[in-house]
What does this fold into?
Amino acid sequence: MKVRKAVIPAAGLGTRVLPATKAMPKEMLPIVDKPAIQYIVEEAVKSGIEDICIILSRGKGLVEDHFDRAPELETRLLAGKKMKSYEQVVEISNLANITYVRQPEAKGLGHAVMCARSFVGEEPFAVLYGDDVIMGDYPVCQQLLEQYEKYELGCVCMKEVPFEQVTRYSSLKVDWLENNVYRVSDMVEKPATQELAFSNYSVLGRCVLPPEIFQILEVLPKGAGGEYQLTDAMKILAQKKGMIGVDFIGTRYDMGNKLGILQATIETGLKHPEIGKEFRAYLKVLAKEL
It folds into this structure.
């Protein structure tokens, strides 16, 4: 079955990047000249997604405003004959059919996804984590969708993390299938010790799930951090039917982390068609002083 819908959980408070997120949602922090969440929406659209549900919390109206029309701005740009800027602004509002749902309380990623149940209905759907921007010519969401259609099993994108850091992530029990594709039979969210980890493969930023995940989520007990963890629901799905893990192609940036934000900005700036050349020259001069 073709996957047409995606959910982007973006209700987190962004406490790791305070004070910037006191008044601005972390999803709106810019990577050069676009907010982080726009890169995520564009990835979904490039992957063939038609309908997107963004999960928000109170105080995040800026996200809705960004993807809405801006008549006054558009009129001003047209009057000034700034056609390129005008086209960019209008294009944002035409990226996809976007629905917004509010998560009333911060109860974890599993709870955030559960808030999208009415939007999803009885269809498979992609989840693109609002904290994770993944850059590359081959959209990671598309990589997962292709494997979902091939194996007809839920899929997660994954990467190896240093074993000493695995307790901060999730850990997957995997068996190689082909190329960069693995079968996932079990997983654990933030194992208490390295010894309790299945491997140093962790879920990072994207998954594609069948609608039956909601039946698991509605009876799921609280997990790590006293929250409803999506990983715990996927663990049950993996044990029951198995899942697919894709060692994805692309570069991931953690936008809930100060270093991740800087890395995303610098590396994207170096490739930017307008400022890339000048920025590279600046960094070469700066590097001599380090």
Q: What stands out?
A: Residues 258-271 form the longest helix (14 residues).
